[in-house]
Structures are given as C-alpha cells and as structure tokens.
Amino acid sequence: MELDARKPIPVTAAVLAGGRSRRMGSDKTLLTVDGEPLVLRVVQKVREVCVSAVVVTNRPELLADVALPADVPVVKDTVAYQGPLGGLVTALECAPDEWVLAVAADMPALEPEVIRALWDVRGEGQVVIPVGEMGPEPLLALYHRSCLPTAKAALDSGRRRIVAILPSLRVVSVPVEALRAVDPELHSLVNVNTPDELMDSKLSKVDAERDAASVRLSVIEVGTRRTRGMPSESPVTVVLNDVEIATVQGTPSDLEDMAAGFLVSEGLLVERDALKSISVDGKRGMVYVSSAEDVPEDFRFRERYITSGCGKGVTFASVGHAAGVEPVRSDISSSSESLYDMMGQMARSAVGYRETGGMHSCALGRDGHVVLVREDIGRHNAVDKVLGRAWLDRISTVDSVLLATGRISYEMVVKAAKARIPIVVSRTAVTDLAAEIAAKVGITLVGYARGGKLVVYTHPERIRIEKEES
C-alpha cells in the first residue's frame, strides 16, 4: 500500500559531504547558493520528503557553523576518505530506517519529488537508481539496509565506487527520462564540481544561464568582427581500479586517450592486453580505468610533482627518475624538410587552435606523415593524448617523431623516452633540463622548428639538412 503523497517516506536521507573538493579548490559544501551553504540547501530539500536525514562527512568540525536542523546529526565517516562507498557504508550502519537515500551534498537544484518517484518503483529491489546515457547515478539513489554486507566487502577489497556493488544486488534501474515527469529539465542530477558550475547554479533563470554561457564562450575580435571561441578547461580526475590517481586541468575531449597516456607514462599501465575498460563520466569530469594490473601498494605514498606546464601538469617522476630510463637506440633519421612538412600537417589538423587560438597541439609522425594529432590547453595533456591513443590502438611509437607546438620540458622528454621515440620536435623552446635529459637518454631534441629554421640541441646525427638553413 502506497503512502499518502503528502507524508514523508520512511527513508533516511544520507547527505554525503565527505569529498575533498579538489576540482573546486575549497570545500564546496560550504559555498553558498542564494545565501545558503550547499549542504544546508540539500538537507532542506531531502527533508521535504524523507522522514529523517543525516550528514556524513570526514570533517565534522567544518560544519560547526552551519545552521543544520537540530534533528539532523552529523556523522563522521567510519573510515576516512574512502569515497562515496565509504560514506554509504557509514550511512547504512547508522540509519534508523531500512532504506537510505544516498545524495551528494553538491546538488543545489534537487527536486524532492524525484526521490518520491524512485521510492514508488522500489518493488523487491535492494537498490533503486536513475540510469542515463553516462550510466548509473549512484549519488541520487535508494539503498536497502541489506546492501550493507556487500558494500562493506567491496570497501574492504579496496574499491571506493558505489557502482562496484551493483552487480551483486537486486537493482531497479529508472531511466532518467522517466524522471522528467517531476523534473522536466533534470536539474536534480546536476552536481557542482567547479567554480563555473557553481556560478551557473546561482543563475535563477534558464534564459539567463544561456545568455551568460554565450557571453563566456564567444569573443568578437575588434576590427574583424569575426567570432572566436574560447578554449575549454575543466578538472579531470583519473581513477585506476577504484584508486584515485590524479586530478589535472585539461580540455574535456579525448579523455580516454589522456587517461591512458598518463597512466602508461607513469608506469601504472604496461600490458595493453591487461586493460579491461575505460569509461568517461564527462558530467563529473571523471575517467575510470579498469585493468588486470594492480595499482602498486606504495602508490599513495609516492610524491607528486607539479610540472612547469599550463593546466597544472602532474607527474610522479622526479628528475632523478630519468636516470633509470633506458636509453633510446634508433638508426632512424629525418630530413629538415620532412620535419617542417610534418609540423605543417599538424598545424592544418589543429582545429581547436584555429577556433580558439589557445590550444597546444601534439602529433605522432612516421615516415614523413602525421598519423595522430591531439589538442589540449596543457602541453603535457596533449602529449598524453597522443601517446594514449597510440597505445590503445596498438600503434607503434618506436622510430617515430613526436611533434609539439609548446615548450618541451624534462617530463615530456621522459614520456617520449618511455615510448621509445627517438626524435622530439617543438615549434618553440626547449628547457635546459629537457636538453640535458634528452642527451642522456638518446633523444634528438629539436626546437624552434618554424620559418624554415630549426635548432638541434642533442644527438644531431639523426637530422639531415637537405638545404642550407638561413
């Protein structure tokens, strides 16, 4: 028998506020929308329909000044920083009701009737979850207390994503399109992960949001009246086997390539046949990689190095690690004319640069022909995208040429060495440390390849000068 729609449903709403907010840059649950902290706004929304509520967080002290209702307790995660799955386990353990609604604390436009719609179709399921084009929405879903043993077992095995438990449970999947009956624009599914998304959430009208977006994304060049777009930038988090590896700033395109290239360059992916899957959650800026290769047990203790690149490049390889890279041995050579021509091929394929004027390009060349081109706001990301796509498609990088529009720094040389690429060419400068490492690892490093000129810094024997350079 269904309850009167005006009465609360017997569900404990667990507002999960335990994230580290790396992509926002500060604790997003305390940022305000319409004068209210995000976490308070979500608590008020869920209390409209759920009989009880609880806030689960790793840092209860940060919520001390938030005027939460007196009957909404703040519970500390049983085990800190174990992701959404850890928060769900804590909620299932402490909830007074048999059903728990897991909801993220960064969903300012949550429509309470969506929760009731999920409740009404629960049937004999243990989980009731919306499913869209990008997959399940685990942070706006219902979980029965009987899910607890499965969730704890998954957490004990090192997994931190809620979706990891779904195959072992009775799941009622609700197409997100079915929720439009109570939330026509599906605003309930919108998370606030970045400052831009927070800005958008503060706009009260859809038309105003569209107008603001058009202003941000279109520039008129004075004198020409030609419209020019702006390069897109957002945080992207790479997760390998449910372990968060790194968050970088990048252009949200070709993210499978970037994740694969980054992980291969860092030595976390080695055997192509061991790769199981790569899934991209563009909405949340997440890339999930599954591999038969284990993440090293000492990974979380490794020191991260912030590189000199734009877009906050990250690497786990220090300058000292370059000493352990096997030297590149190759008899390949290339003419200066061939290098100029391949730089031109790359430029002609750089659609993002032509449209925005603010993108780096990287390409893989072989036998005078460019076989792959990728673009990104970050030099390192563009390299990762090219090397990642080559690895995914099993394209050999041995005896090839890596071309780039941006400055070549030491870690980019290390990436090339690990891919066994003997020649690296840039349209602009190379750093002194990059040249020093290139000399040691056997890479021919070329800079300022433009205007019919180039500068060869290391191992010049691989470059044939077919006509006099002026």
- Could you say how many structural domains there are in total? 4
The secondary-structure class comes to alpha/beta
Helix content range = 25-40%
Can you tell me the CATH topology of the largest domain?
A: Spore Coat Polysaccharide Biosynthesis Protein SpsA, Chain A
CATH superfamily caption of the largest domain: Spore Coat Polysaccharide Biosynthesis Protein SpsA, Chain A
Low-confidence runs: 21-26, 201-220
CATH architectural designation of the largest domain: Alpha-Beta Complex
Q: How many helical elements?
A: 12
Give the strand content: 25-35%
What shape does the CA trace take? elongated
Q: Which CATH top level class of the largest domain fits?
A: Alpha Beta
Distance between the termini: 87 Å
Give the integer mean of the pLDDT values: 83
Write down how many β-strands occur, each being a DSSP E stretch of 2 or more residues. Answer: 26
Biggest sheet features: 8 strands, mixed
| Radius of gyration of CA atoms, rounded to a whole number | 26 Å
